Every structure is written in structure tokens, then in C-alpha cells.
From TrEMBL:
Taxonomic classification: Bacteria, Bacillati, Actinomycetota, Actinomycetes, Micrococcales
One matching Pfam family: Transgly
PANTHER family with a match to the protein in the record: BINDING PROTEIN TRANSPEPTIDASE, PUTATIVE-RELATED, PEPTIDOGLYCAN GLYCOSYLTRANSFERASE
Protein's recorded name: Penicillin-binding protein
Region (Disordered): 720-752
Length: 752
């Protein structure tokens, strides 16, 4: 058989590996010598050539700040949630245990404080180990730091495909890292390099940097690590998978004791310390961190709101990727408006209304804003913020519209039909147009045929309540309120027919403008509230609870509308501040009109449809209830000068027979029909009562409207069944003998 010739030397043979390392060693040795000896003193040509070749390699390396953990804080500084791509918390060298500093040097680079970035002795030792068939690393801490910085920079830029690890690196890659290590030693002190290294390296199980590792494995800070703990973590760095304190504790103990032996040999610890440390039991107190809104300590839906505000704002990056990097890697401190004490009350209220896992699968939500500032104080709902498919888990935010004004997703539910809570807008325009709240209006008018002469100077209003056109007559909640009454009484008792008669005397375009001035918008499109359909006069359109709270806050602040805001400041880990959206507070409604609305809606609480709402202080507050067809959506919205709250209970999974809230039992209580003053009203009162005890939200007395709004005027109605809509005075029609006036018959009312 013919013999097969084999190459004498290959790169995989022992001799090949030896020659390769020798080539690198000669170059590196010459370079190291060059750090201390002028090149002219090196007689060998190979040395000069090595230096020239090495000097042509790039030496600059930008040490960008590594990815840091972002914290979202409530108004009192408590942590709501954390966001991170890598769990890392930078600390100074002074805030690290001396044991971890000495331990990492002892095991990774004993001559760290003597060499100039690369270690010739270490390289020669690696050569010998290779010749003998073994393996020993030659990289210094500085070289490892350079390698980690290169990887971190590539990851930060999204160039993960360019990352090279271990055997993937060429001789050129290693030489370039050596060159950069030498340059780094000239630019930074040893302690700066060690600090950067310990804050950057990976300790396994998602922990980057010594502070995160100390928290993860021992639930302590880096500065408080004991000798056995620090030695264990120093040993993990070599191979976080092999020396995993959770998966392979025995390996960690062996490696820890090796670190301790090195520390003893280098006189970093005493024999007594060594003896005690090697006998110590490895006790891991796993404190695995969690991040994002799913793990929020409170208010997960508010957390998501904050998250979307950052991800949607070009001020934090031109692209979605840049904004995501800003949030997850920027080490931000995001301070928010959330009041944690009130938030807990709001959360307790919605949880008590109906459990997330109740088979009925109904929703409950509360959102509060501060009048005059727009600060969002609470945002609670009864579902569980979790993407897993499970009853009660729901990622949509009941409080928010689908999108923001620019069309960016807010993860909102898109709002709900608001029922009679729209009536204050019609009433506000009634007052704004110069009408008195004491004008008698005919509540008996129920027929509005197709072609009725509605006035709308910016469009066309359609719809009908007329059996002749196939629709029913306009209904009230019960048969006892079809008679003339004042506009004031019509609002606080929430009478549909009064709302329609007042609207018939107004320009619908101005009603729409009043809605916008108060802060209302369509929950799906964020366009102005639609008044082109007469059914929207009594709330057939979807509006988000946060907009309903804004509406009442506008009235509460004397007509000053503020956009809702959740952010008060954003700073990064260098202390740099970033702009946050302002509330854009403006006087959009006259103070007199706002006072007129508040005056009337305060009476809703004491003798109208909100009479049974359990609010402690009804003298300084005002509110409006609302209920839609089938009691599917129910509301109480209201405010005082200190806080405005929108409370909703209803069916968020659909509409139709299954989702009506009639003939229903909730928490053991049977309801013929759930009205706005019931569950939503109780939630609302719970938050408002709690806020009354907080000085920052103290309520001031309500201001009276001007005398002209309270003046008695001649009865004014729109002609009954008059398609032209001409104004015609009529005589008041008294209630039937067996019917008490609404002012003497308090109660809660459902509005269609």
C-alpha cells in the first residue's frame, strides 16, 4: 500500500500552534519592548518590522456607555418598573468590595498593575502550555475589557453579526485588540480600566456587571460582598455557563477555592481568611430581576402608557429602533406623575368591583387627572397585564384611545360609548350661547323625523327618532319625565328629551367645538367628537376614560384645558435631561360657562341621578352619570378643584345580548340593570374620598355662575313636530297627579 504523505506542519498540529503563537509572541514581545526601548535600539529587522506592522493597526476605541437599566418612578420616587436590554447597574470602584477587586485581578491577570496592556510573561506561559498540549489564556484584563467594549459597541449599533468570539478571531483580530489595549492603558488609569471591566463583564443568568451579579446571586450590593461571595463571582467570569452558581454550584465552589488560593499566594488575603473562606458554604439567594410592565410593582397599564409615550416621541430618537435603544439601554430615570397612594386606592376599587377572572369577564377602570396641570394621578383597571392567553389577561389599556394624535399606537382599548356623560357638553354650549339654565324647556318633544332642521354650520347632522321613518320615539329613562322643566333640571336629572330640545336651538358645529375645547375626541381615530349623528348627543360615540377625566378637569379648573401628561422628567445616567411633553394648558372655555356647568352638576350629586353615589363631600364636587343601551357601558365622571376622575364599568369584549348588564349577579349582588351611579359611581367615590385626605388635592368651594345664567326667562322650545325647527313659546305642562317632580324624587337614572 502506498503511503500517504502528510504535511510536516499544520495550523492544527502542536508544532503549528507553537509556530503561530511564536509569531504572535515575537510581534508582541517586540511591541512591549518598544514601549520601553527606542526602536533604533532594536537591532533585529524582525523587531522593526513587527513594530511597524503593529503601529499601522488602529488604536482608537470609543468606550461608549454600556447598556444601562432604565427606571420608571412614581411621583414619590418609588419604582414602578425597570426596562433593560442587559441588567446592569454601574457602580464606582469605591462602591465595590475590595475582595472582588483583588479576586478578579488574582485569577484573571496577576500582573495587571505592572504591565502596559499586554503581558509578555502571560504570552510565553500560554506558548508553553500549548506545546504541552494544554490551554491557558494570555489576555490581560485590559485586553478582555477591550474585547467586551468592542462587543458592546457592536451590539449597541445592532451589528451583532460582526461579533467575534474565541476561535472566530484571526491573528489580525488579536493583534488589533492588543494594540487597542496598549492605547487604552495610555489613556486611562488602571483603576478606571478595572472599574469599567467590572461594570461590563457578564456573570451569567442575565447579570451584566458586578452590581447586577451581587444582586442576582446574593441579594446584596457589590460593596457588601464577602470574601467567599466575591471569590465565587470572580471565578464565574472565565465561563459563566460552566461556573453557573445556580446550575453548577459544585463547579463554582471548586473555582472559588482556586481564586482564593491565588489571592493567598499573591498575599491579598491571610491564611486565616483563606481557611475560613474555603470552608464556607456557597449559599445563593437568587433574586432574579424582572423587567418591563408585566413585572411592574404597581400600575402596569400606566407603565405601558409611559412606555408608549417614549417609544412614540421623536424627541427620543428619529426611528423606532433608536427610541427603543434609548428606553432599554439608556439607563434613564423617568419620573412620572402617578400618585402611588391614590393608585392603590383606585386599583383596590376596580378589583373589588369585579375580579379579572370572574366568568362574566366585565371590565372596570378608573383614571384621574389633576385640574390645571393635566397630571395623570391614577390609571387602574381590573384585568391582568399579561400577554398569555388566559381569562382576565388583557393587554389593552381601558383608559386610553387606540392611538395618539399622530396615529401612534397607545395600546388603548379605544374608548367606550359614553351615554349621558356627553350631556354637559350640550349644556355648556347652551350657556355659552347666552341661554339661561332657568329657561323652561319642553321635555315632551320626542319626535324628530328625517329631514329635521338641525343647524350645523360645519357639516350635516342626520338621524331620526320617528316611527314614520322606522325608528322609535326618543326615550327617557322612565315615563315620568316627559314634561317641561328648566334646562338645569334637565341636566342634573339627565333627561334625554331636554338635551335634544336645547341642542335643537344650537349650532351643532359649536357643540362639536365645545367638545374639543373640553378635551373630548373619538377613541378610535382621535378626530373631533362626531356630532353629525343625533344619537351622539346622548353618547353613542366611543371616548376614552382619560379624555372624560380631562373634560371634567377642564370645567373644574374654570375652563382651562390641559392635555394629560404622565412624564415630569427624563434624565440619563450622565445626568443629561431630555424634554418631556408639556400639558399645553389653555383657557378654552369661559370661566362663567365652566362655573355654570359645575353649579348644575353639583346638584346631580345631591338631588339628581347621582344622589345615591357615596361621596363624602358633595358640596365642592360635581359629577355626571351615564349608561348606554343594555347597560353595556356605565360611567360616573366628576371632579372638584383638586382632582378629576372618570370611572367606567362595562363590557369590553363586545356588544350584543351576551354583554348587556341587566339581570346579572356580580359579587353576589343581583342587578336588574347596572346604572352609572352604581358600580362606576362607587369606584369614583372611593377615589375621590381618598383624595380628599391628601392636601395636594384639597377641594375649594365651587364658584357661583353669573346672575344672567340663573335668570328666569320665558319658556323657549323648538316647535313640536315642526320640521323647520322654528322657535315657539309654550306653557309649562305640569306633571300628572300621580307623578312627583324630579326635584323631589331623587334617584339614579339610566340614559339611552
Amino acid at each position: 500500500m502506498k503511503s500517504i504523505r502528510r504535511p510536516v506542519v499544520t495550523t492544527t498540529s502542536t508544532l503549528g500552534r507553537l509556530l503561530l503563537l511564536m509569531i504572535v509572541s515575537i510581534a508582541c514581545g517586540a511591541l512591549v519592548a518598544g514601549l520601553f526601548t527606542p526602536a533604533t535600539a532594536l537591532a533585529a529587522t524582525v523587531a522593526n518590522n513587527s513594530i511597524n506592522m503593529f503601529n499601522q493597526l488602529p488604536e482608537t476605541l470609543d468606550v461608549d456607555p454600556p447598556a444601562q437599566t432604565t427606571k420608571v418612578l412614581a411621583s414619590d420616587g418609588s419604582v414602578i418598573a425597570r426596562f433593560y436590554a442587559e441588567d446592569r447597574h454601574d457602580v464606582t470602584l469605591a462602591n465595590m468590595s475590595p475582595y472582588i477587586k483583588n479576586g478578579i485581578v488574582a485569577i484573571e491577570d496577576a500582573r495587571f498593575y505592572q504591565h502596559g496592556g499586554i503581558d509578555p510573561t502571560g504570552i510565553l506561559r500560554a506558548v508553553v502550555a500549548t506545546v504541552q498540549g494544554g490551554r491557558e489564556g494570555a489576555s490581560t484584563i485590559t485586553q478582555q475589557y477591550v474585547n467586551n467594549v468592542i462587543i458592546q459597541n457592536l451590539v449597541s449599533k445592532g451589528d451583532t453579526s460582526q461579533v467575534k468570539l474565541g476561535a472566530q478571531k484571526t491573528v489580525g483580530d488579536k493583534l488589533k485588540e492588543m494594540r487597542m489595549a496598549i492605547a487604552m492603558e495610555k489613556k486611562y488609569s488602571k483603576d478606571q480600566i478595572l472599574q469599567g471591566y467590572l461594570n461590563l463583564i457578564y456573570f451569567g443568568n442575565g447579570a451584566y456587571g458586578i452590581q447586577a451579579a451581587a444582586k442576582l446571586y446574593f441579594n446584596t450590593d457589590a460593596k457588601n460582598l464577602t470574601l467567599p461571595q466575591a471569590a465565587a463571582l470572580a471565578g464565574v467570569v472565565n465561563s459563566p455557563s460552566v461556573y453557573d452558581p445556580v446550575a453548577h454550584p459544585d463547579n463554582v465552589v471548586t473555582r472559588r477555592n482556586e481564586v482564593l488560593g491565588k489571592m493567598l499566594a499573591q498575599k491579598k488575603i491571610t491564611q486565616k481568611q483563606y481557611g475560613a473562606a474555603v470552608k464556607a458554604t456557597l449559599t445563593v439567594h437568587l433574586n432574579k430581576p424582572s423587567q418591563g410592565c408585566v413585572a411592574a410593582a404597581m400600575a402596569p397599564y400606566f407603565c405601558d402608557y409611559v412606555q408608549q409615550l417614549v417609544l412614540n416621541d421623536p424627541a427620543f430618537g428619529a426611528t423606532q429602533d433608536e427610541r427603543s435603544k434609548f428606553l432599554y439601554q439608556g439607563g434613564l430615570t423617568i419620573k412620572t406623575t402617578l400618585d402611588p397612594k391614590l393608585q392603590q386606592v383606585a386599583q383596590d376599587q376596580v378589583n373589588a368591583t369585579i375580579s379579572a377572572t370572574d366568568p362574566l369577564q366585565r371590565g372596570a377602570a378608573v383614571v384621574s387627572v389633576q385640574p390645571g396641570t393635566g397630571k395623570v394621578l391614577t390609571m387602574a383597571q381590573n384585568t391582568v397585564y399579561n400577554p398569555a392567553s388566559k381569562p382576565g389577561n388583557y393587554m389593552g389599556n381601558f383608559a386610553l384611545p387606540l392611538n395618539d394624535a399622530k396615529g401612534n399606537s397607545l395600546h388603548g382599548a379605544g374608548g367606550f360609548q359614553i351615554g349621558s356623560t356627553f350631556k354637559p357638553i350640550v349644556y355648556a354650549e347652551w350657556l355659552n350661547s347666552g341661554h339661561s339654565m332657568m329657561t323652561m324647556v319642553n321635555g315632551a318633544v320626542r319626535d324628530y323625523p328625517v329631514g329635521y332642521n338641525w343647524k350645523n354650520s360645519c357639516g350635516k347632522t342626520t338621524g331620526s327618532y320617528d316611527p314614520a321613518s322606522g325608528t322609535k320615539l326618543l326615550p327617557n329613562d322612565d315615563p315620568n319625565h316627559y314634561y317641561p322643566m328648566t334646562a338645569l333640571e334637565g341636566l342634573y336629572n339627565s333627561i334625554n328629551t331636554i338635551t335634544f330640545q336645547t341642542a335643537a336651538a344650537l349650532d351643532f358645529c359649536n357643540i362639536q367645538k365645545m367638545a374639543t375645547a373640553a378635551g373630548l375626541a373619538d377613541g378610535a381615530t382621535n378626530k373631533p367628537y362626531d356630532v353629525s349623528k343625533i344619537s351622539n348627543l346622548i353618547g353613542s360615540e366611543n371616548v376614552a376614560p382619560i379624555n372624560m377625566a380631562t373634560m371634567m378637569a377642564t370645567f373644574a379648573s374654570g375652563g382651562v384645558r390641559c392635555d394629560p401628561i404622565a412624564l415630569t422628567s427624563i434624565t440619563d445616567n450622565t445626568g443629561k435631561s431630555y424634554p418631556v411633553p408639556g400639558a399645553n394648558c389653555q383657557q378654552t372655555i369661559s370661566k362663567d360657562v365652566a362655573n355654570g356647568v359645575k353649579y348644575t352638576l353639583q346638584q346631580m350629586l345631591v338631588r339628581g341621578s347621582g344622589y345615591l353615589i357615596p361621596l363624602n363631600d358633595k358640596a365642592t364636587a360635581f359629577a355626571k352619570t351615564g349608561t348606554t343601551d343594555g347597560n353595556t357601558n356605565t360611567w360616573t365622571i366628576g371632579a372638584n378643584s383638586g382632582i378629576s376622575t372618570a370611572s367606567w364599568f362595562g363590557s369590553y369584549k363586545g356588544i350584543g345580548p351576551f354583554w348587556v348588564n341587566q339581570d346579572i349577579t356580580i359579587n353576589g349582588h343581583y342587578w336588574v340593570g347596572v346604572d352609572g351611579a352604581n358600580l362606576a359611581g362607587t369606584q369614583w367615590a372611593g377615589v375621590m374620598n381618598a383624595a380628599a385626605g391628601i392636601p395636594a388635592y384639597a377641594a375649594q368651594p365651587l364658584e357661583k355662575p353669573p346672575a344672567t345664567m340663573l335668570a328666569t326667562t320665558a319658556p323657549l322650545v323648538v316647535g313640536v313636530n315642526d320640521p323647520k325647527g322654528t322657535d315657539a313659546p309654550v306653557q309649562p305642562v305640569p306633571p300628572a297627579p300621580n307623578q312627583a317632580p324630579a326635584t323631589t324624587k331623587p334617584g339614579s337614572h339610566k340614559k339611552k
